[in-house]
Structures are given as structure tokens and as C-alpha cells.
Write a structure and sequence with these properties.
The structure is a homodimer of 127-residue chains. With 127 residues, chain A is mainly alpha-helical. Chain A contains seven helices and three strands, in the order H-H-E-H-H-E-E-H-H-H. The N and C termini of chain A lie far apart (51 Å). Chain A binds a DNA duplex (30 and 30 nucleotides) through helix 3 and helix 4. Chains A, B: This is DNA-binding HxlR family transcriptional regulator.
Chain lengths: 127, 127
DNA sequence: TCCCGGTACTTCAGTTCGTGAAGTCTTGCG
DNA sequence: CGCAAGACTTCACGAACTGAAGTACCGGGA
């Protein structure tokens, strides 16, 4: 891919810059998820791309895959520690999008967001 | 591109996920730069891609382009405020790369890094 | 005089990446 | 039987990215 391997920004860019990759991680940051849930949440992704991304992310050790031997087979994906470490990146993107791109949708169930980021807003800021 | 427009993460992903885009911003975060400097620093980028990215980034209001009517014509690119707001993202990527991908190179002239983060080195450093 | 080098690109042909639609495999249900 | 669910593959096509080459400009050296 011709990026410079010794540069940490390049290395991260390589992982992160496939189309949909960051969005998959954003979804998984909310909790473990199944293939078809991701497919539904990432409206517009092709199953081929989702499959490819998930596989690559698994190889990188960013997501973990767990198969259940049920009868429509069930597979769940979750972030590893290495994957969780990307969440601050996502949060930066979220605030950037809100501040500079005028995007204010939730796009994720809003459940995890508070947990993940805000430790405890100092009540003073509001006043 | 089929991303969800109301989602801030998606919107940012759209901007940021072209190959090289983040690296261009990383370079520009070190200070204004010319086309051929970027070309040299981003070893392996094709001039076409660089040109395309720079143009797109300009349209987005992330970089500013300034032309000097000199005799080999000179063009300089710099981050706007909207572009500078992406620097924390780059810094997250840098620490992620260092911590989780074992990449410890500098990849940028090392000059800017300190400038950007440290407000003013105590005069003792020079002596 | 003619060619060279530097800068900022554009054009071209070819490869890789991502897409939508459709197909695969398994078993439970009506 | 035939469809449904779930997790994918396969296929053919278009978009993105690539390397090599070309364009336009002019000053300077052989």
C-alpha cells in the first residue's frame, strides 16, 4: 500500500481507512453485535464488504469473533482491547462531525456514549 | 457514498477516509507546505491523487490554497481552522499506532510535533 | 541556440476496491 | 414442498488509486 511502516499515523491510517471500517468499530463500541445487525445498522454496506472488513479486523486483533452452533448459525463480533483503544478516535470524529459538519444525529443508540466518554461534567460549565 | 448524513461519525468518515487524506492533514499540521514538498513527504502518492485530495479538501474548507505568481509558479497549502480541528484525531492515531502497532518512527520532521503540543519551551533548552 | 531543471499539475491505461443483486447451505415450520 | 432466517460467497460492474508520461512556464548553462 506504499505507506511508511515506521510512522504510527500511517500504520493507523492503513487499518482505519477502509470504507466502513470506522463505522463498524463505532457500532461494536456499543457492544457485541451479529453480522446481520451490523448489516442493518450500517445501511448500505454490502455483505461482501462487511465480511471482508470483519475478517481483516479479526486478523488485526481488533475484533473477536464468536460462533454459536445453533440452527440458523449465529456469529457475534466484539471489540478486543486493541479495538476498544480506537474508541477515542471515534469520539473525536463524533465531536468533529457535530462541531464542523453540522451533523447532529445520534446514529448509535446513545446508550454507550455517556458511559464511554464523559467521566462527569463539572456542573460549573452549564452555569 | 451511501453513508448516513445525519451521523457525525459518518460525515467525518467521509472526509477522512480517502487514502492519504489523513496523512496530508498530518503534514499540513506541521505548517504550510507546497505541492512538491507534500509529494516528497508522502512517499508513494501519485500527483493525481495528491491533486484530487487537495482539491477536495479545499472544497470542504479544510485546506487553504495560496498561489504566488512567481516564475516557477509556487502554490502553498495550509490548514484552515476547520482543518486544524482535525489535529486531535491525528494525534490519537499517532498514539494508537505507537501503543498498539509498534510503530515508533517520527514520520514528520519532528519539528512541529513539539511546537503543536508544547506552548513555549523554557529558555533553558537553548543554553 | 538548444536543452535541462524545477514547479504544479493533467492525461492515460491499468489495477484494486467497493457495489448491488443473486446464490449457497442448513434446518424448522405451515 | 417451499419459504424463512442467518451468515456468508460469487459475479459483473463502476469508482478509486496507481505509475508513467506529458504540458506549460522560464532562467541558466554548454
Amino acid at each position: 500500500m506504499s505507506y511508511d511502516d515506521s510512522c504510527p499515523v500511517c500504520r493507523t491510517a492503513e487499518i482505519v481507512c477502509g470504507k466502513w471500517t470506522l463505522l463498524i468499530i463505532r457500532d461494536l463500541a456499543e457492544g457485541r453485535s451479529r453480522f446481520c445487525e451490523l448489516e442493518r445498522s450500517l445501511k448500505g454496506i454490502s455483505p461482501r464488504t462487511l465480511s471482508l472488513r470483519l475478517r481483516a479486523l479479526e486478523e488485526e486483533g481488533i475484533v473477536e469473533r464468536q460462533t454459536f452452533p445453533e440452527v440458523p448459525p449465529r456469529v457475534e463480533y466484539a471489540l478486543t482491547e486493541k479495538g476498544l483503544a480506537l474508541v477515542p478516535l471515534i469520539e473525536d470524529m463524533r465531536s468533529y462531525g457535530r462541531r464542523w459538519l453540522g451533523a447532529d444525529g445520534e446514529c448509535t443508540p446513545a446508550s454507550g456514549e455517556a458511559e464511554l466518554v464523559v467521566p462527569a461534567p463539572p456542573a460549573a460549565a452549564a452555569a
